[in-house]
Queue: 2 jobs
Job 1
Amino acid sequence: MSKKLLRRGGLLAATLAAGIFSGAQAADPIKIGSFLSVTGPASFLGDPELKTLRMYVDKINEEGGVLGRPLELVHYDDEGNASNARNYASRLVRADRVDIIVGGSTTGATMAAVPLIEQSRTPFISLAGAVVITDPVKPWVFKTPQSDRLAAERVMQDMQERGITKIGLISGTGGFGRSGREQTQQVAEAMGIQILEDVTYSPSDTDMTAQLTRIRNNQDIEAVFNFGFGQSPAIVTRNFAQLGIDRPFYQSHGVASNSFLDLAGSAAEGLRLPASPILVPDSLADDDPQKTIVQAYVDAYEARWNESVSTFGGYAYDGLMLAVAAIEEAGSTDREAVRQALENIQGHVGVTGIFNMSPNDHNGLAADSFRILEVVDGGWKLIE
């Protein structure tokens, strides 16, 4: 065999090897990291979030992936423990070397991980609600739920429309309730609504009758607003009904799920709360820009898991879709390019709302992204 032929064969082999190697590189997965409270006291948040991420990672991969690469979900269950969340965030960044993180079911878990995420310069989309997550703005941290401040604004807009100017406030002492209380106090003052009674409860309390009796006995109070999540708001709701408090009652978006209705039972009748339209897709107008996306998510989730949707799974859907949109816009998984793409997302229609991010706003939602829902005949009814 001639040297020329050998050289040609060697070049062909080298070319084929390089092509195979290049193809393998191109097919390397894009790693989506996640830490969620799938078990433990906040499992009602983390369970639908993880189911949503798994469902849509599978769907995206079936449709060809992102930038021609499959997605790989790397997930850890923090069990609602902030220390666990910090450790898992460290593992995702340092050992798993994920490209972006979508997770953090609770404010406590999210904030425990934030310093590490900022230090490692990893894009992070939180699924928790407190305003402190994105205010002040942190370069690498974004979030999908409306903030507790926006929830307070939306509730008090509805109160003003009903002529309510004097309220009783009851809230949990956990991270979400504490932040919600602070934001409600600020919003109430700005909107000219007086808080005549301000009482709190611990997440471990099993009866809030004493706090609610104090509110009931103040005859000047025109409505009551509870800010909390988990099982506590259901206890507050049942105690509210047991005491026969005949005044408008509001909950926060922290209970926007059918599981809350199951826990509260008939005591929830008539209460109002701010929520995304995911709980009332059939009530949306045909020309509502969210209707198609909301209905598709509801249908897909309920068919896959044979259970009702919650707004919390919707936060995960929006988080993943924002991550995908940013990676596609960046054209790579370069972290700074993805961060900049996230920061400049405009008009992104999600199930929670229409996101308009900016360097000064890493949530991208306004108070009007909330719809006011009322419990009527044991179900959710769209009020506006």
Job 2
Amino acid sequence: MPQDTPTNRWKTLDQDLNRLSRLEAASMYASRPLVGVGASLVFVTLAALAAAIFTGGEPQSLAVIVAAAFGAYMALNIGANDVANNMGPAVGAKALSMLGAIAIAAIFESAGALLAGGDVVATISKGIIDPAGFTDVRMFIRAMMAALLSAAIWVNIATWVGAPVSTTHSVVGGVMGAGIAAAGLATVDWGTMGAIAASWVISPLLGGVIAAAVLAFIKWRIIYVEDKIAAARTWVPVLIGLMTAAFAAYLALKGLKRIIKIDMTDALLIGAVAGIALGALSAPLIRRQSEGLENRNRSLKVLFRIPLVVSAALLSFAHGANDVANAVGPLAAVVYAQQSAGVAGEVSIPLWVMIIGALGISFGLVFFGPKLIGMVGSQITKLNPMRAYCVAISAAITVIAASWLGLPVSSTHIAVGGVFGVGFFREWHAARRARKFQAGQPPAIRLPGQERARRKLVRRSHFLTIIAAWVITVPAAALLSAGCFALLHGLGF
């Protein structure tokens, strides 16, 4: 029997403390989702209280108070789902930690929403339903509330199953379903709906093709050359300039419209000047950063990390500027209709409404974003800083190209399409090299078809899940919205 020595007593105490520590860690892990749900309920309640304060708390303002709660719920879901598309590639490439990505995204999403989010929003989601079709203001308010609630529920379901979906399309489906339930099929602009349906295909294809083209360029001009470091010193500043030009043009269109009128030509000129300037400034920095690096692919990843982090921050800023209206557009419409007893296609967004949207997106990201960030960043295909940079630059260029062509596109579809584009290009390139290698080999050592299928670089299960979620987003949100409209009508809102 061992003696009861101080050493043995300390050993027993350490074992007991380790058991308690493991139990505490397990309890914290299990309770983490409950913390997020509890904090979200507090935020939704505070949003409703803020609406009560700003509307004077009068009985007729009950619809605005409830709509503010729905808008806060929608904003939380946008943060949980949509923001993953901007930060996922940077996290998957290990250029950012999960905590760092969440911090950067929360700051830049809020800044984009508050600084560059438009003062005027098309509350009918880009003309999907005709305001003139609503002779009763209460029916219009009910339709906007149903659209908000149904879109939030659908995005919440998609986040739960691990599918990044378009929050814009969710709101579009919600507005369409509520509009049909309230005023019939004639109130929907089916031409606009057709253009949006076309964007289901255009957005991911355009994003994927551009991302694959940039990756092909990097392989051709930097990776597959004898002196990789010298090539990187030449071409990485060019790629940084191209990324800067795209972001500067986009942000000029979004952010400067409050100060001066900016058309596409002016925005492209601003982008070109900014791109040339930053490309030139980055050249000496890249040269200094590359000193002492070995002539190998691993060294190239170092040179893309900082540009990738910057691009992720700019994507978050642009997303906050563009997509906050998905959370607060219908809410702003309810506020306007309640205050003016009228219906309008475009209204100003009150500051308190914009703050609800900005804070909700940030809180949703912090509490629920890591799941989708991890899925987009590492579970679709393997990303490194170069591949992730291709996704980021593709998103920026595609949005500008779509704006120039007047195409309604989804930032979610573009970003995830870029990830797919990079993965499928790598598959094609790897298969091409394998065919060349095996062409002269005896049949005995050639890979069987089953093994070739196992080595696919894009996870087909995630690909099929995401495509299915994209296809059913608008009809699913529309059906949910019609049900929510009937429920709100029954409750007397």
